[in-house]
Amino acid sequence: MTIYYSLTFLLLAAEMATFTLLVIPFPHPVRKRVFGFFSESPIIAKIAYGVKISFIFVGILFFDALQRMFRITAEADMAKSGQQGMGDVRTETSFAARKFYAQRNVYLTGFTLFLSLVLTRTFAISLELIHNQEEYIKLKKTGSSGDKDYDALENKYNTQLAEYNRLADKYNKLSGNKADKKKD
């Protein structure tokens, strides 16, 4: 395997390890600190920038490997249909090996590109999850004090209602009106 496909394989292995770390169910405080570090660190931002540039090269390698695979497949099909030198076992083995290497390179670069998209989306979803958990914790704390506020407001309402009824009864006694009396 050439050096650039070896580097692509190392990038794929690093992506798989990173994906595994992203989906491990850490406790919320640990996950918050780790993702906070990843999203705010200038060193990680520079590394991510370099990795994005490397994905441009992996994309170029993908299209090159795809083109090479189609070309080798077409050559093998032409050789089989015309039987031009395909009777030799070494020639058939050579075509099979070239086809295998071309397909391997396509799969290697394709999986690397695909996993980069998955990693990006998984990281964004994880950050959104952390944000939503933080909002939930805030609302839960506010909700318990909100219950206290509700209870205080209900007590105040009951007190004012009782005072209103007392004053209304007193007014009715003084004015001679009864609340039960129907007007004709």
Automatic annotation (TrEMBL):
Q: Cellular component per GO?
A: endoplasmic reticulum membrane
Q: Where is the BAP29/BAP31 transmembrane domain?
A: 1-136
Listed A to Z, the keywords are: Endoplasmic reticulum, ER-Golgi transport, Membrane, Protein transport, Transmembrane, Transmembrane helix, Transport
Which Gene Ontology BP terms does the record give? endoplasmic reticulum to Golgi vesicle-mediated transport; intracellular protein transport; protein localization to endoplasmic reticulum exit site
| Family annotation (Pfam families) | Bap31
Q: Subcellular location, in the record's words? A: Endoplasmic reticulum membrane; Membrane
The record lists the membrane-crossing segments as 7-27, 47-66, 106-127
Q: In terms of one coarse class, where is the protein primarily found? A: endoplasmic reticulum
Membrane topology, as annotated, equals:
Multi-pass membrane protein
Q: Give the InterPro entries listed for this entry.
A: BAP29/BAP31, BAP29/BAP31_N
Coiled-coil boundaries: none
Q: Which family does it belong to?
A: Belongs to the BCAP29/BCAP31 family.
- Function per UniProt: May play a role in anterograde transport of membrane proteins from the endoplasmic reticulum to the Golgi.
Protein name in UniProt: Endoplasmic reticulum transmembrane protein
What does the organism's lineage look like at the top?
Answer: Eukaryota, Fungi, Dikarya, Basidiomycota, Agaricomycotina
